[in-house]
Specification:
With 365 residues, the protein is an alpha/beta fold. It contains nine helices and 19 strands.
């Protein structure tokens, strides 16, 4: 199949007039100019599919659901908005419940329908637990982590750890040695705690400026993150978790390291109403999810597509830069080399972005 585009993002450039040949789901050729016999012509901008490394649900369902149909609904909902690669994030539950959720998700990983599993809990700070049940939080123990990793059969790709917890540095080193990416987050720690976690092998920050101190003094975790080149930094760009003005400042400062995520709960791609996260009641009003108990934010209701659009239209980020944050950087974060950009040999996960309509559409091959 030959796709002709008026423009497209290739690497770090916006290129006019190009065509892409797709063979068996892969990009087999591409060139600037006009193809003599294209199968499809798009008037918008050709960009790579988005990769969401932190999503809990969508379409009214969660990745933690017992039903295969509900899990498939989450995947389909995000895909319909241009997310062609997704990591299934799980919130804090009892270890036995987490084990069962992992077992239900393994077949989706084996079939390539998800990129892996992210355990956002239970190794989090009580003081910064957010929408995680505080009574279920634990300090990381090597034996328990070994059991979970073995059970996951390679599906567990990322675990969030508060770096100030007892045993955190040893746990991070163990996980990295097992090929699991570690994110620091849901932390009440400071500069030295973040440094210790990063020195131990953590490479990602879970939703920056959420569930952590927002102070920017020299001893703060925020200051460490802003100045530490080894860390890729998740950002929820919905205007609620981080105001757009603050987000613009962050993107100007460390935009080359930012990963746009959804942190989506079940209401993404669905409606306002009453939901739960784990076992905690959540109310969604005007597209904002908050815990019923204390009105704290409880995940978002957006997809990466909306984060991408907000980066461009609310924060003034260039299209090329936004593509990097929504596709290239998340692929890098997971060590994935077959997607995240438009190049020969890559998967043909392709989207059309229409700037005037502020719309992203999946190109069906």
């Amino acid at each position: 199949m030959i796709i002709q585009a008026r423009s497209g993002v290739l690497g770090n450039k916006l290129t006019d007039d190009l065509w892409v040949e797709v063979t068996q789901g892969r990009i087999s050729d591409l060139s600037q100019g006009f193809h003599v016999a294209p199968d499809a012509v798009i008037e918008g901008v050709l960009i790579p599919g988005f990769i969401d490394i932190h999503a809990h649900g969508g379409g009214g369902s969660y990745f933690s659901a017992h039903s295969t149909d509900e899990i498939e609904k989450v995947i389909a909902t995000h895909r319909s908005f241009g997310t062609t690669g997704i990591v299934a994030s799980l919130v804090t539950e009892s270890i036995e419940d987490l084990k069962n959720q992992i077992l239900r998700l393994i077949p989706f990983f084996v079939r390539g329908e998800i990129l892996g599993i992210h355990l956002e809990g239970p190794y989090l700070s009580h003081a910064r637990c957010g929408a995680h049940e505080p009574s279920l939080l634990l300090e990381p123990k090597i034996d328990q982590l070994k059991e979970l990793i073995t059970l996951g059969k390679g599906a567990i790709q990322m675990i969030t750890v508060a770096p100030e917890l007892n045993g955190a540095s040893e746990a991070i080193k163990f996980l990295v040695n097992k090929g699991v990416k570690v994110a620091i987050g849901h932390t009440d720690g400071n500069y030295s705690d973040a440094a210790a976690g990063t020195d131990s092998g953590a490479t990602i920050v879970t939703h920056f400026l959420n569930a952590m101190s927002k102070e920017r003094d020299e001893k703060s975790i925020a200051n460490f993150v802003l100045n530490e080149e080894r860390l890729l930094v998740e950002l929820i760009l919905d205007g609620h978790h981080v105001p757009f003005e603050t987000a613009s400042e962050i993107l100007t400062t460390i935009g080359s390291r930012v990963i746009l995520i959804s942190d989506a709960m079940a209401a993404a791609g669905s409606t306002d109403g009453e939901y739960v996260i784990g076992k905690l009641p959540v109310q969604v009003r005007d597209g904002v999810a908050r815990l019923a108990s204390n009105s704290k934010l409880a995940g978002s209701t957006i997809t990466v597509s909306q984060s991408f659009i907000n980066a461009i239209h609310e924060c003034g980020i260039s299209l090329v830069h936004a593509v990097r944050m929504a596709a290239t950087n998340p692929a890098q974060a997971l060590g994935i080399t077959d997607r995240g950009a438009i190049r020969v040999g890559m998967r043909a996960d392709l989207l059309e972005y229409q700037p005037n309509e502020k719309k992203v559409s999946l190109i069906n091959l």
